[in-house]
TrEMBL record:
NCBIfam families: rifampin_ARR. Keywords: Transferase. Pfam families: Arr-ms. The keyword Transferase applies. InterPro entries: Arr_sf (IPR038611), Rifampin_Arr (IPR021975), TPR-like_helical_dom_sf (IPR011990). It comes from the Bacteria. The keyword Transferase applies. One of its GO terms (molecular function) is transferase activity. This is Rifampin ADP-ribosylating transferase.
Length: 247
């Protein structure tokens, strides 16, 4: 199931995160519980269970929610869920350590290591930018970040979600028209660590990065642009962001 930020369960979890960041812990917990109770499929349950686990403050409550989240991830068996498994198993290992169960903690640490695999995604893949590119051109690393002027990027980024590439294009620096290109990676790639297991478990936005060039296959014209209001809100979020780019 493709990640959709407008999904009502995702919206509830995002509201819960916002409340939690404000220190409104009880209200956040109510929103996460509502998300879990309203979830109608395994993907929604997986997202909601992840936040229920993260919200718990003691091992006794956290452990069963982690177990539920892992079970749902294994049942989903897709790239989004698989990307969350190393972090989930590591958290479960901590819970067992806190209970003095070193044997199970060791087993979970081994599972965390073995589940950290290279992403398998067949695409299609997209890249959003304001550069005017032609079919056959190569996108390479080594340019300044679109979001932090003083950062030279060691990787080039892309996504398998068209709307994500559109958002990147709209937020890119400059006054040129935002453009989305169909691209082909020319080398190995990895999950983007700037978003993987950050606000959502795994890599639901299917965002990747590579040190190898991306080949332009063609331009995509049929993608949904942000409204002026939405673009303003996203730019404000970026301006207020204090996170460092993992480069």
């Amino acid at each position: 199931m493709e990640f959709n930020p407008n999904n009502p369960i995702i919206q509830l979890c995002m509201q819960g995160m916002a409340r939690s960041e404000k220190g409104e812990i009880m209200e956040a917990g109510q929103l996460f519980s509502q998300a879990w109770n309203n979830a109608s499929n395994n993907f929604e349950k997986f997202i909601a269970a992840y936040y229920m686990a993260r919200h718990q403050t003691n091992t006794a409550n956290k452990l069963p929610w982690l177990q539920t989240t892992i079970q749902l991830a294994l049942e989903l068996n897709d790239n989004t869920a698989k990307g969350a498994l190393p972090s989930l198993y590591s958290s479960l290992a901590e819970c067992y350590e806190n209970r003095g169960d070193e044997q199970r903690a060791t087993e979970c640490r081994k599972l965390a290591t073995s589940s950290a695999t290279t992403p398998i995604d067949a695409g299609p893949f997209y890249h959003g930018t304001k550069a005017n590119l032609q079919t056959g051109d190569l996108l390479t690393a080594g340019y300044n970040s679109n979001y932090k002027d003083d950062v030279v990027m060691n990787h080039v980024y892309f996504t398998a979600v068209l709307s994500g590439a559109g958002l990147a294009a709209e937020l890119a620096k400059g006054d040129a028209l935002p453009r989305v290109y169909l691209i082909e990676p020319t080398g190995d790639f990895e999950n983007d660590p700037n978003v993987t297991n950050k606000r959502f478990p795994g890599n639901p936005t299917r965002s990747y990065r590579t040190t190898a060039p991306l080949k332009i296959i063609g331009e995509i014209s049929d993608w949904t642009h942000l409204t002026p209001d939405e673009l303003k809100q996203w730019r404000q979020r970026l301006a207020n962001s204090t996170g460092e780019i993992i480069n």
